[in-house]
């Protein structure tokens, strides 16, 4: 583990010039550390791992092996964007693993939220380890650890989820080029590296993905309703200038049905819950109040376009008492 720490007097990266200076420094340091060896990276498409990938592609090119695991709980268009940006545009060495069936089969019938998380986490490590074993001569493992991760794990607030987890036979030296950065600095660096704005200013997305927004036992049809309604919500937020302004927004499709009526016939379908929140520290969260016309439009689009939904609800509950996610 590298023991690089953020110097107390380090200037906050707030301009493209400072971001470029950081990039130049890091490229030199990465080349010095990695030399002609190979580096492995689990690339989720989130801001941190994407910035690490972009830095490493610049620093060592084809010596970087990116693995993008699709656990079947990603949002609509996510794997396609990762492939487009990293394989097609940046010419990265990218392995795409569609493990959706494997995850969804393991999750079938599992209702306990903690057990769902555990299955997703363990399966992820297993899939990644299998890919890692197929590679020869990997010396380093790159991670998108950032400075708040270090501070939180030192303060005992949360286990620093990036570190460790791989089996004994897969022990690598760590490469953590954004370790000393705060999130806003990572975004600045991402922009300076030419990553698309949609990737750099992406809202937070939990590791277990849409799995925590499909409460109870995940079924493919209900998961699809979550994915489709989420895509509509994101599209409408972007169109209405709310992208990048509202901290986090998503849909949840709970596991119960209610009666409705469509074309003169009775329906019995799921509700779709919309949640849109703002926060600075995620410990306390307030609810974003949407304009009435946008609400009406969202209801009509979701009902019309998402199979299995006959009712749209809005969650007005702050945190506390509710958490952001439903599981
Ligand atoms: P809660 O539901 O705890 O969520 O109020 C607070 C923030 O954390 C995100 N979240 C997660 N992120 N893995 C993650 O990487 C997780 O298991 C996880 N659970 C919640 C959530 O989206 C929100 O931004």
Summarize the structure in words.
The protein has helices at 16-34, 47-60, 78-89, 100-107, 113-134, 147-154, 183-192, 197-200, 220-239, 292-305, and strands at 38-42, 64-70, 93-98, 138-142, 173-175, 248-252, 258-262, 265-279, 285-287, 309-314. Helices cover 40% and strands 18% of the residues. It folds into 2 domains: 7-200, Rossmann fold (3-Layer(aba) Sandwich); 209-314, 2-Layer Sandwich (GMP Synthetase, Chain A, domain 3), CATH 3.30.300. The protein contains 10 helices and 10 strands. Helix 1 packs across helix 2 (47-60), helix 1 (16-34) packs across helix 7 and helix 2 (47-60) packs across helix 7 (183-192). The chain is α/β, with parallel strands linked by helices and 327 residues long. The mean pLDDT is 95. It has a 5-stranded parallel β-sheet, with helices on both faces. The two termini are 33 Å apart. The protein binds xanthosine-5'-monophosphate (XMP). Residues 117, 204, 206-208, 248, 282, 319, 323-325 line the site of xanthosine-5'-monophosphate.
| Total number of beta strands | 10
Q: What's the CATH architecture of the largest domain?
A: 3-Layer(aba) Sandwich
Bound small-molecule species: xanthosine-5'-monophosphate
Q: Into how many domains do the coordinates divide? A: 2
CATH topology of the largest domain: Rossmann fold
State the share of residues found in helices, binned by percent.
40-55%
**What is the tally of helical segments?**
10
Q: Uncertain runs with pLDDT below 50, 5 residues or more?
A: none
Helix-strand string: HEHEHEHHEHEHHHEEEEHE
Averaging pLDDT over every residue, what do you get?
95
The description of the largest β-sheet is: 5 strands, parallel
Q: Judging from the principal axes of the Cα atoms, what is the shape?
A: globular
Q: Can you identify the CATH class of the largest domain?
A: Alpha Beta
> Over all CA atoms, what is the radius of gyration?
21 Å
Structural class: alpha/beta
Q: Between the first and last Cα atoms, what is the distance in angstroms?
A: 33 Å
CATH superfamily of the largest domain: HUPs
Estimate what percentage of residues fall within beta strands.
Answer: 15-25%
């Amino acid at each position: 583990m590298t023991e690089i720490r953020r110097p107390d007097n380090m200037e906050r990266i707030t301009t493209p010039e400072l971001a470029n200076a950081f990039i130049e420094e890091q490229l030199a340091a990465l080349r010095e550390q990695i030399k002609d060896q190979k580096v492995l990276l689990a690339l989720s498409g989130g801001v941190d791992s994407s910035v690490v990938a972009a830095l490493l592609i610049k620093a060592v090119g084809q010596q970087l092996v990116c693995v993008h695991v699709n656990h079947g709980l990603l949002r609509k268009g996510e794997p396609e964007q990762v492939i487009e940006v990293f394989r097609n545009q940046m010419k990265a060495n990218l392995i795409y693993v569609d493990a959706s069936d494997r995850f969804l089969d393991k999750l079938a019938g599992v209702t306990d939220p903690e057990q769902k998380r555990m299955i997703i986490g363990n399966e992820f490590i297993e899939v990644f380890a299998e890919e890692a074993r197929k590679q020869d001569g990997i010396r380093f493992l790159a991670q998108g650890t950032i400075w708040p991760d270090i501070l939180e794990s030192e303060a005992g607030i949360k286990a620093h989820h990036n570190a460790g987890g791989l089996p004994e036979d897969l022990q690598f030296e760590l490469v953590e080029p954004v370790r000393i950065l705060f999130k806003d600095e990572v975004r600045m660096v991402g922009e300076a590296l030419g990553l698309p704005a949609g990737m750099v200013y992406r809202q937070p997305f939990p590791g277990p993905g849409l799995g925590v927004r499909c409460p109870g036992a995940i079924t493919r049809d209900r998961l699809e309703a979550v994915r489709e309604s989420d895509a509509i919500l994101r599209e409408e937020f972007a169109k209405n200038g709310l992208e990048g302004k509202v901290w986090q927004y998503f849909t949840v499709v709970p596991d119960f049905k209610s009666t409705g009526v469509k074309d003169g016939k009775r329906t019995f379908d799921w509700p779709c819950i919309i949640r849109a929140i703002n926060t600075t520290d995620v410990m306390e969260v307030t609810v974003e109040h949407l304009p009435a016309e946008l609400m009406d439009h969202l209801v009509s689009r979701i009902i019309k376009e998402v199979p299995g939904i006959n009712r749209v609800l809005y969650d007005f509950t702050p945190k506390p008492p509710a958490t952001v996610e439903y599981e």
